[in-house]
């Protein structure tokens, strides 16, 4: 029954999301941040790395909208450019981790023989603290943007895999899968058309959360100095650099910190709303 | 046996067994079942829940791998088919499911649900041709061409079951397993679906194994009946004979439980006490003995062999006390 109700929900998913004001606000904030990052060269008043020793540590307001750092670089411009890294890492990780996770989860959930080894692999990976595993992987792979995405995808893929595996185990036993087998539909087609297609909504919700986790983790990695190339501004490196001036120039930490909070919060709210909208039991309360 | 002498047998099931291994032990879902399905007939498979009817039906399509016995389908042993031959079998043997809700993928349109069957077997050369075939099938089962672009949740239970039937018919099978295909529907809708199946069968002349627990439905549609209890065949035979004169105590109990649409009809009711025993620990000897009012010590000793019985010698009955009771 639940499966068919969620199909009915799909039609009005967008309406449900819009009706929830918190979700709408989350989506709007996210859209603004994303647009600012995409059109950074047009919006940013300064080059992100343009130094001006005379203007260093200028408080927000005057010449620099959100102040300047210890090298006289515009914090607002840097924060916008840094958003590009954060969003790329978030989006890239969400997509790549979904890809890995779906592959592992589908195979483990559908083929009994693969379930043991794959489940143990997932358990083993989830036993590591996220950030430690990410640091180890980035240290091993080297600190480029793609390697950070790859490392975080490996860290978060098990979360996706676990959700996909659990759903696959349920759907595998449903009569429509049996019907497809009885019709002689090939196993890859069953996996894609009958199983994956019915997991997509849960997958989107999980991917939203991983988007947020990955952005947070990237900031953490950059803060610790194992993130992307240090010459590229990221919110994490900005906070790390601003640490020395906490008492005198707090905007150096507050601006990138606020950016992280806003981004992660709006993603979480959107993800929560998405999950509620896709869950027929919760959707009634809208 | 005269029962097996049917001139043209489409499917011959011999000694079929299915044992599931679980953490708590072995479950004997189907044990040493043998019967024939004559070409063009409708054979009813009846029994309580847990009697192994569904498992047996699934075994015939190799949706479940049987652990023993043979299934001869038109000269081929279904149990030993390889991958390629199995796909060919699936063009000839189809199944209609009990639950019209979960047997249709909620994310697929009717066009794809039915079209998938066509695609899998390369029926219809183009998308357009497959669409035409699908529309034809929908009209044949009492739906309209415009339904092709709809999702399953937009249909009622009866309509969904019609979609399930259209899907099964898409490959033009010779044999269809109908697994309790009306028990989830309202009585009025049940009649429509039964009539539809009957019409389709006359038109397309396929053979059918009709799995049910409702004996009045089986009487209406079936030529022959097989009564299953705890994975074993209790009684099998021509439907009219078996209904007129059930020989096995279990068949008698089942039939006396079925309502008769005649207020003056008085008959002795044989009430079955208790539940069907667990298939993990079935009783020794005759599996029915724990609920049988005629049971004797010898019933616990050996499994009764099927014997010919009934007024027209058209029934096969597995009971030690046949003739005495």
How is this structure best described in words?
The complex is a heterodimer of chains A (286) and B (325). With 286 residues, chain A is an all-alpha fold. Helix content of chain A is 74%, strand content 0%. Chain A has helices at residues 2-11, 13-19, 21-38, 40-43, 75-110, 112-127, 130-141, 145-172, 175-182, 187-195, 200-224, 235-242, 251-278, 280-283. The longest helix of chain A has 36 residues, at 75-110. Chain A is elongated. Chain B has a domain at 103-173. Chain B has helices spanning 53-60, 83-92, 110-120, 127-140, 157-169, 187-204, 215-221, 239-244, 249-257, and strands at 9-22, 25-38, 42-46, 68-73, 76-77, 93-96, 175-179, 207-212, 224-229, 232-238, 307-309, 315-317. The relative contact order of chain B is 0.15. Chain B starts with 8 loop residues before the first strand and ends in an 8-residue tail after the last strand. The chains are: A mainly alpha (286), B alpha/beta (325). Chain A binds chain B through residues 1, 3-8, 174-176, 178-186, 189, 193-194, 197-198, and chain B through 58, 61, 63, 86-87, 90-91, 93-95, 97-99, 101-108, 112, 116-117, 120-121, 151-153, 164, 167, 170-171.
Number of helices of chain A: 14
The arrangement of helices and strands of chain B along the chain is EEEHEEHEHHHEHEHEEHHEE
CATH names the topology of chain A as MetI-like fold
Find the count of extended strands of chain B (DSSP E, 2+ residues).
12
Broad CATH class of chain A: Mainly Alpha
The secondary-structure element order of chain A is HHHHHHHHHHHHHH
The total strand number of chain A stands at 0
Largest interface: A-B, 24 and 33 residues
Corresponding CATH architecture of chain A: Orthogonal Bundle
């Amino acid at each position: 029954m639940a499966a068919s109700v969620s199909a009915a929900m799909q039609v009005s998913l967008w309406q449900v999301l819009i009706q929830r004001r918190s979700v709408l606000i989350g989506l709007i904030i996210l859209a603004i941040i994303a647009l600012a990052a995409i059109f950074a060269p047009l919006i940013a008043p300064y080059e992100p790395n343009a130094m001006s020793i005379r203007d260093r540590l200028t408080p927000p307001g005057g010449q620099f909208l959100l102040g300047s750092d210890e090298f006289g670089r515009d914090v607002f411009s840097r924060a916008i450019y840094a958003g590009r890294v954060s969003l790329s890492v978030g989006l890239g990780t969400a997509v790549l981790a979904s890809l890995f996770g779906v592959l592992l989860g589908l195979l483990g959930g559908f083929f009994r023989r693969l379930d043991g080894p794959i489940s143990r692999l997932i358990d083993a990976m989830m036993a590591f603290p996220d950030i430690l595993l990410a640091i180890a992987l980035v240290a091993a792979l080297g600190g480029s943007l793609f390697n950070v995405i790859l490392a975080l995808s490996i860290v978060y893929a098990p979360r996706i895999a676990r959700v996909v595996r659990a759903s696959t185990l349920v759907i595998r036993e449903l009569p429509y899968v049996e019907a497809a087998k009885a019709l002689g539909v090939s196993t890859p087609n069953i996996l894609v058309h009958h199983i994956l297609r019915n997991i997509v909504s849960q997958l989107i919700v999980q991917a939203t959360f991983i988007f947020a986790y990955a952005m947070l983790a990237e900031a953490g990695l950059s803060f610790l100095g194992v993130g992307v190339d240090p010459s590229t501004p990221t919110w994490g490196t900005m906070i790390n650099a601003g640490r020395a001036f906490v008492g005198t120039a707090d905007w150096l930490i507050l601006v990138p910190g606020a950016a992280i909070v806003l981004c992660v919060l709006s993603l979480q709210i959107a993800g929560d709303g998405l999950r509620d909208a896709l869950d027929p039991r919760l959707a009634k309360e809208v | 046996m005269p029962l097996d002498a049917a001139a043209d047998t489409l499917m011959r099931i011999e000694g079929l067994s299915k044992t599931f291994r679980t953490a708590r032990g072995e479950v004997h879902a189907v044990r040493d079942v043998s019967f024939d399905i004559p070409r063009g007939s409708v054979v009813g498979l009846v029994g309580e829940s847990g009697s192994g009817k569904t498992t047996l039906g699934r075994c015939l399509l190799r949706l479940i791998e049987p652990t023993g016995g043979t299934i001869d389908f038109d000269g081929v042993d279904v149990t030993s088919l390889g991958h390629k031959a199995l796909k060919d079998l699936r063009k000839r043997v189809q199944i209609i499911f009990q639950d019209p809700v979960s047997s249709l993928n909620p994310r697929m349109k009717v066009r794809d649900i039915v079209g998938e069957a066509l695609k899998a077997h390369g029926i219809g050369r183009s998308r357009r041709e497959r669409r035409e075939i699908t529309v034809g099938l929908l009209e044949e089962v009492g739906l309209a061409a415009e339904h092709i672009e709809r999702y399953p949740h937009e249909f009622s239970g009866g309509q969904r079951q019609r979609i399930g039937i259209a899907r099964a018919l898409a490959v033009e099978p010779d044999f269809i397993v109908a697994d309790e295909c009306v028990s989830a529907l309202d009585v009025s809708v049940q009649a429509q679906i039964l009539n539809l199946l009957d019409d389709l069968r006359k038109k397309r002349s396929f053979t059918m194994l009709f799995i049910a627990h409702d004996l009045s439905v089986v009487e209406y549609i079936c030529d022959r009946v097989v009564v299953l209890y705890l994975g074993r065949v209790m009684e099998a035979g021509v439907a009219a004979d078996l209904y007129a004169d059930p020989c096995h105590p279990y068949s008698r109990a089942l039939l006396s439980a079925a309502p008769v649409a005649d207020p003056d009809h008085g008959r002795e009711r044989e009430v079955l006490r208790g539940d069907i025993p667990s298939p993990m620990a079935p009783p020794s000897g005759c599996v029915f003995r724990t609920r049988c009012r005629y049971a004797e010590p010898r019933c616990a000793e050996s499994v009764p062999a099927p014997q010919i019985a009934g007024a027209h010698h058209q029934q096969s009955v597995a009971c030690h006390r046949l003739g005495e009771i």
